[in-house]
Fold:
Amino acid sequence: MKTLRVDLGGRSYDIQIERGCLRAAGARLKGVCPKAQKLFVVTDTNVGPLYYNALKASLEAAGFNLRVHVIPAGEASKSPSQLSTLWEDMMDFSLTRTDAVIALGGGVVGDLAGFAAATILRGVDFIQIPTTLLAQVDSSVGGKVAVDLDHGKNLAGAFWQPKLVLMDPDTLDTLDDKTFADGMAEVIKYGCIADAAFFDHLTAHPSRLAITSDIESVLYICCDIKRIVVEEDELDTEHRMLLNFGHTIGHAYELAGHYETWTHGQAVAAGMVMAAKLGVSLGVTPVDVPARVVALCAAFGLPTAIPCDIQTYTAAICRDKKGAGADISVILLEELGRAVVHKLPKVQLVRLLNSFHQVL
Ligand code: GLY
Structure:
């Protein structure tokens, strides 16, 4: 087992990475929630049928009383109405403040269950059991939980750190290639922003099969980078912004596809390529970097350019949380493995992005 400790004082927790650890969940939870008697498990219609029975057997063997709440798979479930249904079901189950909520699934399940845990009874313990690559390397670590509003994604949320992140790489075996690639965009991001040797490792293992042969190390490296960033800036006021490399531009692509045409990872991949090109044109990024990011994203079947018009870029940039006033902060690469926050006028950013599209 590989273990990482996220050191946040009283909110510290372990990330445990181990094949088959889903079946050891009962004993692991006893250790972190010693007073809990009831566990409220949130999962979805894709993940529940695959993994809930194994989890249930382990939790019941450890003496926990369980309730499972299955949400429809998909982003539409990250809604205030679904949150409200969860709250009511938690109260029907007579959950108390010493009990705990478990998220078994991908990012939607983790974000929704985490926000429900953060708010029910003014906060109960929460355990993440992420089952997608994207959730394992990104959303299950760091405590960001949220639901979407009609005005945009993740607009109502909280920072609510889990008590434990239990990561079973075996759960990745059932992902389709598109969903695996979605997570690879975030994996590639870590190489870009913080670890050139890791970027080279990924480049030397340019397929799902090659990466999966030592997936525990890949998960460990990604989570360790995220751990360091989160420990430095838990509440996302400065340094944590580096994790948004490719995301500001990626949000424009998600918007351009009405959140249906492109997955988050696909949009982030094209966003990272565009951010690399932007960095070159601003004199921040070495000229060879865009081609290297393109090659790695393409190797995993991720798009490296997405059509987008000037109005959509403008709309996405205006919505961005890093854009106060006339300027916006974007994340650029000083070199592969080193990211910086770069402030520039929003109008200049839109003009540059649009000019790249003229030559696509
Ligand atoms: N996914 C970016 C963050 O956790 O800050």
Remarks:
- DSSP finds 14 helices and eleven strands in the chain.
- The CA atoms of residues 193 and 243 lie 8 Å apart.
- The pocket of glycine is lined by residues 138, 142, 144, 236, 240, 243 (CB under 6 Å).
- The chain has a mean pLDDT of 96.
